[in-house]
Amino acid sequence: MPALAKDDRSSNPRLWGGLAVGFLAFAAYVLCATPTAYPLDSAELATAAFGLGVAHPPGEETTLLLAKLFTLLPLGSVAFKVALSQAAAGAVAAVLVYLLVLEAAETLAFVREAAGEKTRVLIAAAAALAFAYAPGVVIVSNRAEVYATQTALSLGALWLALRAHDKSDPRLAFLAALLIGLGVGNHSLVAGLVGLGAVAATLPLLIRSTARARFLALAIAAFAMGLLVHAYIPLRTSAMFASFDHGIDNVLWGDGRTLDGFLWVVSARTFAEKTGIVHGNASPWDLPFLPIEELTTIFALIAPAGAYFLLRRSESRVAGSALLVGAAGSMAAALVGGLDPGNPDIRGYLGPAFALIAVCSGIAIAVGTALFRLRQMRVVLAVVFLAGALTRFPSPTQYPGLRQAHAADTEARGLLADVPVSGALFTHHFETGFLVGYQRFVEGARPDILWAHLPFAPNPSYAERMRAAQPELAPVIDAYRAHGDLAEAWASLDATHPVRIEPDAVTPVEARRTLAPVGALWAPARGSPVMMPWPPLDLSVLAEAAQDPQVRGYLAWRHYMDATWSCELGFRDRARERFAVLEKLVPADERFGNLRKRCAQ
Hints:
Layout (H helix, E strand, L loop, with lengths): L1 H9 L2 H19 L10 H10 L9 H11 L6 H28 L3 H6 L2 H16 L2 H4 L8 H21 L2 H15 L3 H21 L3 H16 L4 H11 L16 H8 L2 H4 L2 H6 L9 H6 L1 H5 L1 H10 L4 H21 L6 H6 L1 H21 L3 H16 L16 H11 L6 E4 L2 H13 L7 E4 L6 H10 L4 H8 L4 H9 L4 E3 L7 H4 L2 E4 L2 E4 L14 H9 L1 H21 L2 H14 L4 H11 L1
Parallel strand pairs: 1-2, 1-3
Antiparallel strand pairs: 4-5
Helix pairs in contact: 2-5, 2-7, 3-4, 3-5, 3-25, 4-5, 5-7, 5-9, 5-22, 7-22, 7-23, 9-10, 9-11, 9-22, 10-11, 10-12, 11-20, 19-20, 19-22, 20-22, 22-23, 24-25, 24-30, 27-28, 30-31, 31-32, 31-33
């Protein structure tokens, strides 16, 4: 009997189909994975995973713990290893799409009877790979991020909830509640709204239960167990405040040692305060077109038919309802977050929606195949859809492939090299701060210099850590926090630690007037300072920026801010040099054009 069971497993097309989907998705993400630190939040998350820090609100504890395991692997950079953690999560999400298609299709009796198992497996694999190779799915699965983990957790909870309904097994519902809790410890908005789909799937099981109070109590207990991952925040915060001699550059947002500080992190209150600005730049009317862009026209447009077939039959109505509620929750999260089609993070918010739309597309294909009269052509049709999905295998060297992503790392290294020995560096742009933190904490670069990211200074916990670890910077931190004499604080520090400053949009004009450009940064002017030129962008950096919008945006912002200061302070030759670079990076940018006109007046 054991031998027979083994033979059955080895010839099981469902098993081999799932393994193939997981392998093909993981292989794509690994081949496309960033080898070095990347812009956006990636450098920050890689640093926090490596040092078990506290990432930006809402904390992302589940992802950080998962990624920490991957940092122990003996291969590649830390950034690459953390990207591998997301590649693994993305592959799991693809397999869950495959399983959801199979199980939802099999709730339709006529599909189960007319389409053979191998045909259904091919269709499920096609839908799963259409999802896996969507550009927005690739870009959150090949770098340090949190969204591939969240999509896998949300889909896992939904799959377990549907299995619980199908098998009338409440234990699977409790596992689903556990995953939702872990998801809330990762990205509460997406986890909570998409989790409503899993709740919808288990409601019939609750209604049928003869011990509803016990069912609810155990489900809540399982959810609470998942939420225990939040304990990471106060524990790690306390550990990092206990030792200022090691890891001062590690990521630590807020002060999780107090209840108010803990709630500040997990509620993402700091981002809620910026919703007016975010939504002012949002484009919610683009939402219906994003699934077409991600999944291709045919997969996106046939999805409503799949949902219709699930909803119109009683035996599949629970599955159809759960899928729609989950997809709607993901879309609602994107709208609440501020739907900007150019922001890859919003594609991460929409990851579960893309997955569930792909599931409905798979159902539509399965129904169409089952209704096809020529039985021998059913497999052929399934193979055609699978081949179409496979043609979207991402190129490792073309965005969203990040195999050659070195520009941000190169720029961060160059910026640190511009700081004199025993100097003091003050960054302003969030991406620069994350990249510098990665270089210093993970790579051990420039331990001789002092460094502070000034936009963090208003946070009391950051100021406390800076004063304890780098007391020389306290006057600058205090002046920034109190809107005091920042120029005097910089000039005083410059006497002992040569100061270098990244230009920004908020430094008071009075303080800017005391500065002069030195290389890629600015410094307090002393008499007639030597104006060291900003080294030209490496050709490989320009080539990468040409095809990667995130790199292009990061570089353009730095050069734009430098050009702004140069124009305001009379360094016209410097401004023209920056304009020449911006002409290569963003020639049609309206803000750049307006600045150049003002500077010429």
